[in-house]
Amino acid sequence: MIEGKTTGRSRRIRLGMVGGGQDAFIGAVHRIASRIDDRYELVAGALSSTPERAARSAAAIGLDPERSYPDFQTMATAEAARADGIEAVAIVTPNHVHIPAAKAFLEAGIHVICDKPLATSLEEGRSLEEVLARSGGVFALTHNYTGYPLVRQARAMVEAGELGRIRIVQVEYPQDWLAEKIEETGHKQAEWRADPARSGAGGCIGDIGTHAFNLAEFVTAGTVREVCAEMTTFVEGRRLDDDIQILLRFDGGAKGFLWASQVAPGHENGLKIRVYGEKAAIEWVQADPNRMIFSPLGGNQEIVTRNGPGANAANKRVSRIPAGHPEGYLEGFANLYTEIADAIAAAQAGMAPPPDVIYPTLADGLRGLSFIEASIRSSKAGGVWTAI
Amino acid sequence: MIEGKTTGRSRRIRLGMVGGGQDAFIGAVHRIASRIDDRYELVAGALSSTPERAARSAAAIGLDPERSYPDFQTMATAEAARADGIEAVAIVTPNHVHIPAAKAFLEAGIHVICDKPLATSLEEGRSLEEVLARSGGVFALTHNYTGYPLVRQARAMVEAGELGRIRIVQVEYPQDWLAEKIEETGHKQAEWRADPARSGAGGCIGDIGTHAFNLAEFVTAGTVREVCAEMTTFVEGRRLDDDIQILLRFDGGAKGFLWASQVAPGHENGLKIRVYGEKAAIEWVQADPNRMIFSPLGGNQEIVTRNGPGANAANKRVSRIPAGHPEGYLEGFANLYTEIADAIAAAQAGMAPPPDVIYPTLADGLRGLSFIEASIRSSKAGGVWTAI
Amino acid sequence: MIEGKTTGRSRRIRLGMVGGGQDAFIGAVHRIASRIDDRYELVAGALSSTPERAARSAAAIGLDPERSYPDFQTMATAEAARADGIEAVAIVTPNHVHIPAAKAFLEAGIHVICDKPLATSLEEGRSLEEVLARSGGVFALTHNYTGYPLVRQARAMVEAGELGRIRIVQVEYPQDWLAEKIEETGHKQAEWRADPARSGAGGCIGDIGTHAFNLAEFVTAGTVREVCAEMTTFVEGRRLDDDIQILLRFDGGAKGFLWASQVAPGHENGLKIRVYGEKAAIEWVQADPNRMIFSPLGGNQEIVTRNGPGANAANKRVSRIPAGHPEGYLEGFANLYTEIADAIAAAQAGMAPPPDVIYPTLADGLRGLSFIEASIRSSKAGGVWTAI
Amino acid sequence: MIEGKTTGRSRRIRLGMVGGGQDAFIGAVHRIASRIDDRYELVAGALSSTPERAARSAAAIGLDPERSYPDFQTMATAEAARADGIEAVAIVTPNHVHIPAAKAFLEAGIHVICDKPLATSLEEGRSLEEVLARSGGVFALTHNYTGYPLVRQARAMVEAGELGRIRIVQVEYPQDWLAEKIEETGHKQAEWRADPARSGAGGCIGDIGTHAFNLAEFVTAGTVREVCAEMTTFVEGRRLDDDIQILLRFDGGAKGFLWASQVAPGHENGLKIRVYGEKAAIEWVQADPNRMIFSPLGGNQEIVTRNGPGANAANKRVSRIPAGHPEGYLEGFANLYTEIADAIAAAQAGMAPPPDVIYPTLADGLRGLSFIEASIRSSKAGGVWTAI
Questions:
Q1: Which residues pair with B274 in a beta bridge?
Q2: Which residues contact D160 (CB under 8 A, 6 or more apart)?
Q3: What are A91's strand-pairing partners?
């Protein structure tokens, strides 16, 4: 119970949302994340592609009915025309809507915060580059795990050379919620994720594999050069992969492995990363995110905590409360939202964002799609090493 | 990544705050907690007893300067006079201000959310009873640990008899931040906690011992009848206790032990409770709050998770996101705020609160003060069993 | 997989055993412990008070039938008369046999290794002092937990001042095997433990409370001066305590708490000790004995392992195999046997034992009995502080 | 502290040892393992290839000097000629000696217990088949991890279908002791392991990769059909691999991954296996071997303990002491020795071994060598799927 921190703002950013109606999971997460540090005010939405559900959802969260729109295009146009129109939008739909919506808002002069994966294909994702460049707007992708304080600490330690040259990366993201074929039982979340038209060509790889991939590159500040992928669909009749096991070769010689699965009993959201260098290693597990194991070669392992005695500046910068009081998923997500608010404020002032502001961008989204496509090519060829 | 939950509201409760200016810790926590489920809007404050700091703090969090007050009495009077005045106030000051402020707001017709411990003495705490009864208002005490989903599950399991008759309770709350005499180094948080005039007669016992005590009674739905206390001040020259070790006798025959310490190296906020019944036991640790160990006699131990496959209704009711994505301290705190919002809404509608709404009340606060005073009497007498 | 260690001996000590027949638990443990480092050869036994079972048990473990005796007195006399008679005896009977047997062997010039607790009463225990002094023999009490490498490391760290002055000691030994009244179901182990005639006046306190007490004094190199005890019999009709919760005051001002229970669901053998000093703390758990948490004030917690990079000399001295390959209960027990073998060899050579040889002695046994009796007096008086 | 178990024997098997002189690690382990259940008596040895060290080592462990031999061939001949000659021999040398020594003893009518890996090449390993068949002797390979009680439980659960059809296997064995080039510093253990002439073509893969591979096939009762291997030498100038990352395809469709490393900071002996089936999963970690996580799909995770309430017959059968008292590496190793003693006793009686006796055999050794060679071929070809 050490010093506090007064988070606050002079003015909230007016935010809209596309997707995130009732029964959606991630929309509620984005809304909470946007509120935690009080940097946004949600004032408009196209919360569902079903107009009636859109209206009902808008009412449930207290939106002005006038600013509940039937679709994202209408919303972009109408809000751009208002003096008090939204300054940023959160896109939290199934994957196939990400790019069309992002384009509409960027073209309307509205900054975009988009869920991952970026698009249903690399080609589609790339089509955003020109629009974004032209708009001058901020585009952020919510690879939210990069917002955890100890993930920030890990990256800073790698950058500072505290692990020495990186040799090995082990990253995994197992879940068990798709161990049976629940997409045919009316389960909304499962349904669209199992549908190539809405998800893209990747199932498990798109949904959580890209998170693991992004985390591995983020923490190591490294680049995966080649993959050798074994992608499997264990549940009979499922149309997309539900388990991926992928060997990784990094620029610079590090070797790695990425496992993501949605059929691994006992795992709720088992994201875990381990990075081994010549001098030391780190291990971090998302389900218990307030501690990280630091293993200096030849010394005792140490337990580094969020905001604790061994916290570095990168860790403290995004911690709100004293060590020992756990922060969680929503606070990590909120850290991204706050970084993005800083970036938007800078953009509005015509300035570059402050140098310590970190958030995933379009480039990260394209890396993820390249990873998906290279892995699918590798796997379809029977498991051959394939360049990303 | 299962079903989501649309939290929301038709109308936010207008909230004020007393205390919680810059450098305070718990004020920021209350503000975030009040925002997470979007049930409150902070519109007024008397954030510091130093007028200049009050104004600066108000500006930092975006309050209307007109509604930043120099003291709580002025605020109570002014807000009560406004048509859009606050409906509730959060009191997050050092302990000696709790009761005077609570009285002022209750008498002005404003509901009160108060940090713990309730008061600097039992006598002072009791003086609130009559005022509260007369006001008809809601009074909530933020023993926030009762808001954690697995604490709710534990209590419901005990109530349902799943542990059998309770035999043993072990509760502890060790910290290490006062292992040295930092109260003389300008550390604000330490300073007032070490000062009997602002803290009351209890140091460690008031600051965290009451949390542990409240949690023990909450989870077991039990009542501690007698204590035998060993209260110690390890740091030379400190004016209040910094370590308490207390034997407990419960109504119904259970035996327990409560340890709280602020001088125990390695513990950040090590709140932990273990309850053993005739048929089973549970164990929960605040620093890793999304799991609880359930130990049925004669069977394997089980790991119950927040919102996971073994979650009961009480657990699910206050969970926001899927299992495996950790919720933390702020979400637990927010659960109290949301319960209290329901209670306030019911009161405003002239109705009783819904039956599943749970939050700590004046009665809990008085229990805590009785515990403090009985323990001090016990310890001063050299460690004799003393009735609460 | 670091360097090995050639354990061995020039000559094995000839060992006898009293108790430890079929259905006994601890006899088999002593036999394995005596073999692990190859310092003993078991050649004689009075394995059971039932002659037929004694013979059957002797045959099962390959004893020469001629050296299987019907009772300890016969064995002491006969073995003392043989040129190749036993040099040491392990007494592994119920408690009431310890002292009579120990006297018989010491008087016959045979060294004694005795299970704990020492006796059924302090008075009985003290009666051994004179016999032992006269005999000049070695008397060792198997408080086996003191044989674990990390327990040795902890004690050495305390002695070296690495924790600073000790403030707080928390020790506990919960089990659950007596949560129901199994002593009436023919369970041999439970039966004698629940019988005051064979156990003495202490139930849980004698069986495992003394282990916890011994460990607390061993690790802290401290002396408990006073106790305030709450001893309970939770299982109806049981004749001895099955749960003890005891406040401790140490010489030098440290405060502590000891909990032992045999009715705590989920605990198999949950021995755990935590020691907090002014500068640092340690935590060790018997069920996972190859690691210890070291918590320096103001630094990261560290994980010290058996024979690992942070192992001190005391830890390495009693480790056999590389770190990461777990040693367990039997190896810790064997460490005592090996220490005792060194002590016996020294005695046989007319020399003092090497200075780093550590094993519990009669003095420890008497401390344990004093602890039991003081606690019973304290508890019977309603829970008053009582000098040991 | 439940029922004990009288381990014993009517007659000890006379055992010899090849290798295991001073400074060796694994020889001491074999000797302790052979003593724990008192089924063997070590009476002869050729403990070192350096005659003087052989003699010194023999003296240190109390061998009759007459039965300390300068080399294994002399020992095989001499012991076969004695009426009281050894019945079995333990071969604990560097890998290149395994096969020549095994042949010498089998041909002399002496049973063989051999350390792993079996040989320096598959071809060399296969050359033992005919000799063994002709001899009618017992040949056991000490893949000691299969002796842990919970590994036995895991296998039995898979066999009984409690996990359903197996989908995913994750096995890893990271260490850190070769993170630097210690083989050039006079470190005996490192020296021969880094020398292809003594180790064979595999470094890390032979030393610990084969353990992980054997464990994966043992627990799943499955067969790996193909591998895709990425073998790396991270330490400059080292002649053999020090990190292997290998994708596995099992007969029956399961997919897996095997990681072994000797350059992963923080890992002492981090052997860990996770097996995921359609209905449930298990997870077991060697460093904390007395517990296993069992994860039934849709239920709470459970903690299964050695000899505890959820122990099955396979677990109990090889447990010595009550749950909660940790058994470790040496006890697991001893379980193999005891199984092998039963097999030898059966062979001596001209009978088949009891059906529940389990120990790794020549077939397992050949599997390991096939795995090494297929992996090397795969890796050398740049990482292509290769049949075992």
A1: B170, B283
A2: none
A3: A18, A114
Q: Test A6 with B188 for CB contact under 8 angstroms.
A: no
Contacts with C47 from chain D: Cβ below 8 Å = none
pLDDT at D3: 35
| pLDDT tens digits along C329-358 | 999 999 999 999 999 999 999 999 989 999
Contacts of A22 (CB under 8 A, 6+ apart): A48, A53, A56, A57, A60, B6
Beta-carbon neighbour count of residue B64 at 10 Å?
Answer: 10
The CB density around residue A70, as the number of other CB atoms within 10 Å, is 15
Q: Please check the confidence at residue C244 and state whether its pLDDT lies above 70.
A: yes
- Can you list the alpha helix ranges (DSSP code H) found in chain C? 26-36, 51-60, 72-81, 98-107, 122-135, 149-159, 188-193, 196-199, 204, 210-220, 313-317, 329-348, 362-380
Q: Is the pLDDT of residue C3 over 50?
A: no
- All residue ranges of chain D with pLDDT < 70 are 1-10
The pLDDT, as a whole number, for residue C1 is: 28
The overall average pLDDT reported for chain C is 95
Convert the pLDDT of each residue in C297-311 to its tens digit: 999 999 999 999 999
List, for residues C251-262, the tens digit of each pLDDT value: 999 999 999 999
d(CA D155, CA D377): 30
Find which of C153, C282, C295, C301 to mutate to test the A interface (most A CBs within 10 Å of its CB). C301
pLDDT tens per residue, range C263-294: 999 999 999 999 999 999 999 999 999 999 99
DSSP SS3 for D13: strand
Q: If pLDDT is split at 50, 70 and 90, which confidence band does C6 have?
A: very low
- Widest CA span in chain A: 64
CA distance B145 to chain C (A): 24
Confidence of residue B6 (pLDDT cuts 50, 70, 90): very low
Q: In chain C, whose CA is at the least distance from the CA of D20? A: C6
The widest CA-to-CA distance across chain B, in whole angstroms, is 64
What's the burial of B61, exposed, middle or buried (CB within 10 Å: 0-12/13-18/19+)?
A: buried
Domains of chain B with bracketed CATH: 13-144 (3.40.50.720), 147-319+361-387 (3.30.360.10)
Q: Which residues of C touch D323 (CB under 8 A)?
A: 268-269
Distance from the C2 Cα atom to the nearest Cα atom in chain A, whole angstroms: 13
Instruction: Region of B297 please: left (phi>0), alpha (psi -120 to 50) or beta.
Output: beta
Q: Which of C172, C245, C279 sits opposite B247 (nearest CB)?
A: C245
Please list every residue in chain B whose beta carbon sits closer than 8 Å to the beta carbon of residue D299. 309-310
Which pLDDT belongs to residue A10?
Answer: 57
Shortest Cα–Cα distance, D242 to chain A (Å): 11
> B322 to chain C nearest CA, in Å?
28
Tokens of D352: 């088949």
Q: Which residues of chain A have a pLDDT value below 50?
A: 1-9
pLDDT, chain B, mean? 95
Measured in angstroms, the CA of B58 and the nearest CA of chain A are apart by 10
Please provide the average confidence, as pLDDT, over all residues in chain A: 95
Looking at residue B245, its pLDDT comes to 98
Contacts of B323 in chain A (CB under 8 A): 268-269
Counting as contact any 3 or more CB pairs under 8 A, the partners of C are: A, B, D
Contact across the interface for C228 and B232, Cβ inside 8 Å:
no
Give me the phi and psi of D16, to 5 degrees please.
Answer: -115, 170
Q: Which two tokens stand for residue B332?
A: 């637990």
Written as six digits, the tokens of A257 are 């492995």
> A303 contacts in C (CB within 8 Å)?
300-303
Are A385 and D385 inside 8 Å of each other by CB? Answer: no
N-to-C CA span, chain C? 46
Virtual torsion, Cα A145, A149, A150, A156, nearest 10 deg = 100
